[in-house]
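Chapter review: from sequence to fold.
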Amino acid sequence: MKNVSRGSVFRRKGFFIALYSCLGVVAVLALVTTIANRPPTATDMEIGYNEEAAHVGADQVEPYRAGIDEEAWFRPRQPAPEPTPRPTPEPTPGPSVPRNVPMPEQLPTIIPEDPPPEPAPEPEPPPPEPQAEATVPPPQAVSFIPFSEYDRMMWPIYGETVMPFSVTSLIYDPTLDQFRTNDNLRIAGELGDPVRAGADGKVITTGRNARQGNYITIDHGNGWVATYGQLLDAILVAAGDIVHTGQIIGGIGTPSIFGTANGNHLQLQIKRDEVAVNPYYVLVERGGY
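The token string follows.
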């Protein structure tokens, strides 16, 4: 019984050994087939094939077919004819581009130009030669010959006396219809008759008031001052003017409200040091200029 048991054991072991061997062979064959049929990997590409074992490419060897010479298996495959090129489809026209607009790749290269040369500075003109300064004579002071007590004034106008000078006695005033004193001489004239300066002098002022109408006051020097009243509006002199004997300074105008009854006339008043003087004592005897 013991021998029989050992023999059966060995038989069982031999069976398993044979079984495992077959399985190992099958596994090896499967592994070899898998390796042979797998596509080349990057590692294989880098390593490359053995030059001695790969003189002919796999695509240059015709596949083995039964009934063909055995040498044909290793005969290089004839190169395949080149494929006929297909016609290239014409591109679909896109949006039109103006001909005068260059494409970006056709834009001209801008080369910076050199800056224009600066103009040469113009030479400065030579300085003008010094010229002798024109000597302008200083303005001479305009003056007049002052009037004195031994001189006589010219009559400003010639006409009838319509109201005499009187400061010591009363006289009748037809305009005011009363008796009163009078510190001037009133000489009749026509409207517009010229009135002349009785002597050289300087115009002090011109103006208008209710008593004298339009008037001119002239300083004749040495304290002698004459006022010419009842004149036209168009007075021919101004304050500061120098006048000379016989110069026309205005004309007879319409009398003021204090002299309407005397008609058109000149009202002449002469003072010396602010004191009224009778014009008869200062004016020349009646005659021409």
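Two observations follow directly from the output. Residues 2-37 form the longest helix (36 residues). Residues 46-54 have pLDDT under 50 and may be disordered.
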